[in-house]
Write a structure and sequence with these properties.
- By secondary structure, the chain is of the alpha/beta class.
- It contains 11 helices and 8 strands.
- Helix 2 crosses helix 3 and helix 5 packs across helix 7.
């Protein structure tokens, strides 16, 4: 096992439900310096674990284990932290409760402050749902976070994004083996349908029209879709995917006791130095949402990046130019302190 487990015990969730014997899976890289000011937090994205986050840092890069104490925390529902697939009754499988990003960040805060002894975070950054957690950190614990850089992300899930999530959810649950989440064997056909729809949204229209998938090593669209099918069948539990969809749907930094659904107020409370990097052809997280956010976050820059790779432009290894832009802006934020 290449990660550590932080036992949270009984966690009372924002919904009022409780999660028994909750746990966070995480991995650290580098060491905390004497001032305690070199912490970089990288939450995980939708179909990611701490392992995938390793593509966002390295020796000689702006986030460098030789300089920073990097903490990569697995989101609830991803199969490593508490999830439907690894939780006992009464919260196993489809009985797993809604865990919001507020809940995720509250538990991450407990790990950092109570176990790791950290009181300041130099940067929270991430792609997709990991970026959503960066916004959440900055709104939920504004005194603690110096800078955030969410990319291909948003502070609140849009109506368009919700429609997509309902689409893939419906495809997965239509499998006759689904059985309301009480499946004996994996709903393979549902997972295949889920993956195909997901891939259709993950890239832009131009990506398919101009056969850019060939640059990623696929001869045909079918090759790409089968690759996505296999990844979901081999690596993802259906109930875990749905638990994270529920979390994604509930994404809203103003949801909870602090801001009472006032998104503008939540955005204005973010005191962290902020850089937003949307992809102009992202079909999940549209740049117009980020431009709205930038009108209300006090210390913000926004740098849209155009790519037919759409949401997947940020997947490590897909676009060297995006990596260069991301690293340049991370360097800018980390050098402010």
């Amino acid at each position: 096992m290449d990660y550590e487990i932080f036992d949270l015990g009984k966690v009372t969730l924002l919904s009022g439900e409780t999660l028994q014997s909750a746990k966070l899976a995480y991995k650290t890289y580098g060491a905390l310096n004497s001032k305690g000011d070199n912490v970089v937090l990288l939450p995980t994205f939708y179909t990611g674990t701490h392992k995938r986050n390793e593509g966002f840092f390295g020796s000689g890069r702006p986030i460098d284990p030789k300089k920073h104490f990097i903490i990569s925390i697995n989101m609830f529902g991803n199969g490593l932290s508490s999830s439907p697939s690894n939780t006992s009754l009464p919260h196993d499988g489809p009985r797993f409760p809604l865990v919001t990003l507020w809940d995720n960040v509250a538990c991450q805060h407990k790990l950092l402050t109570e176990y790791l002894g950290i009181n300041s975070i130099a940067l929270v950054s991430g792609w997709s749902m990991a970026g959503c957690q960066a916004y959440q950190w900055a709104a939920q614990f504004p005194y603690m976070v110096k800078a955030i850089l969410p990319f291909c992300s948003s502070a609140k899930t849009s109506q368009r994004n919700l429609a997509f999530l309902e689409e893939v959810k419906s495809a997965l649950c239509s499998d006759h083996n689904w059985n309301e989440g009480n499946y004996v064997s994996p709903p393979v056909n549902g997972l295949k349908s889920f993956a195909r729809i997901y891939a259709g949204w993950a890239f832009s229209k131009i990506f398919y029209k101009e056969k850019i998938y060939e640059k990623l090593g696929f001869n045909t669209i079918e090759d790409l879709l089968v690759n996505w099918e296999n990844d979901h069948i081999e690596n993802w539990d259906a109930n875990n995917l749905l638990a994270k969809i529920a979390t994604w749907k509930a994404n809203d930094i103003s949801f909870g006791p602090h801001y009472k659904n006032d998104l503008k107020k939540a955005l204005r409370t973010i005191s962290a130095q902020t850089i937003l990097i949307p992809c102009t052809q992202d079909q999940y997280f549209r740049p117009e949402d980020n431009f709205f956010e930038a009108q209300h976050i006090p210390n913000v820059e926004i740098h849209p990046y155009d790519s037919p790779l759409g949401h997947c432009v940020a997947n490590p290894g897909n676009d060297k130019n995006f990596v260069a832009v991301l690293d340049k802006n991370i360097h800018k934020l980390l050098n402010k302190f």
